[in-house]
Amino acid sequence: MTGADLDRIEMQRIMAAAYDHNTNCRELRGPMSQTAQQRMTPRSPTIAITPTGLSIPISRRYNKIWTIILFCAIAMGAMIGVPLYGYLYHYTWLDWSLFGLLYVISGLGITVGYHRLMAHRSFDCPNWVKAALLIAGAWALQNSAIKWASDHLRHHAHCDEEKDPYNAQRGFWHSHCGWLFTPDQHADPKYATRVANDPVAIWQHQQYLLLVLTGLAGTFLIGFLHNGIMGGVGCFLLAGLGRTFAVLNSTFCINSVCHLWGEQPHGTSDSSRDSWLVSLVTFGEGYHNYHHMYPTDYRNGPRWYHFDPSKWLILGLSSLGLATSLRTGSYVGDSLARTT
Predict the structure, then answer these.
(1) Residues near 295 by beta carbon (within 8 Å), at least 6 away in sequence
(2) CA distances from 222 to 211, 230, 236 (A)
(3) Which carries the bigger pLDDT value, residue 193 or residue 155?
(4) What is the pTM of this model?
(5) Which of 42-46, 168-172, 183-187, 336-340 has the lowest mean pLDDT?
(6) pLDDT at 118
(7) What does the pLDDT look like over 164-206, one tens digit per residue?
(8) How far is CA 126 from CA 39, 40, 311, in A?
(9) What pLDDT is recorded for position 32?
(10) For the chain, how far is it from start to end, CA to CA, in angstroms?
(11) How far is Cα 335 from Cα 330, in angstroms, rounded to an integer?
(12) In the chain, where are the structural domains located?
């Protein structure tokens, strides 16, 4: 039985338990009017409910306008504000250093924290390590870990199909970032159920806006302390907006480039492809064909010579006793079977 099979079994168990709980609660309350039933948000197919009763909208229709405004603001700030400031005032060594540092921190927050830990449970770690990774992931401005994992798991379950949120069959633009602005008709809370039961993920979801603002404001504060108001503006533009835009697009390349161009050495059951070039800017996530064939493996690049800093970080945590139960997949054994 593969790791993916174990994930599906556990998800079915959790959903069945949730159904039994809701059924018992309705029996205790007695009959309910049709109007009251319609008002119950947990019955909505686009709402995930945490054990604490927190309702989490999964569909993008709930925040589409804010998504468009935020994405356009970041894109304009990065493509217009960043070069304009550089031309007029120039960036300091601090601005560039913080850009690089936060690119690594927020990028690994996504690849190790959101992706390999929360979405695929490729390893286990103490809650404080998990919290640190999810804070770093929040600084990448890619939504909370619960929502991110929900979309990502649905992508794996329905790759190249209509329900795939990043469906590459609809072209480069849609799979890269166009899906953010497209009405989501297939949101399903079952893909968020497991992550929405994690107390650290719930905390991160509740504090997500504060974490994002803290990360952006921190760049201005550091620049301000170093070089006054204009120093704060420059650091915010480059290490804040510019870095966020860079991390967003590097992640988007996994959904677009790694489903359109590259090699398929591990299986051809979907459009996933390996791209060593994308791995250079995504901390090893470019070995996407391997990942789709063995999604619960903590490695995306299974060979020692593959550039996979995310794998190295997990191994480093493991050597310190801060990561356990590292999951791997057989590199050769199931490859042919997975292509059918």
Answers:
(1) 3, 4, 120, 156
(2) 16, 12, 9
(3) 155
(4) 0.83
(5) 336-340
(6) 97
(7) 999 999 999 999 999 988 888 888 889 998 999 999 999 999 9
(8) 39, 35, 18
(9) 37
(10) 17
(11) 8
(12) 3-55, 58-339
Count of positions (residues) in the chain: 340
Better pLDDT: 106 or 67: 106
- pLDDT at residue 225 tops 80: yes
Neighbouring residues of 186: CB distance < 8 A, sequence distance ≥ 6: 154, 158, 162, 163, 165
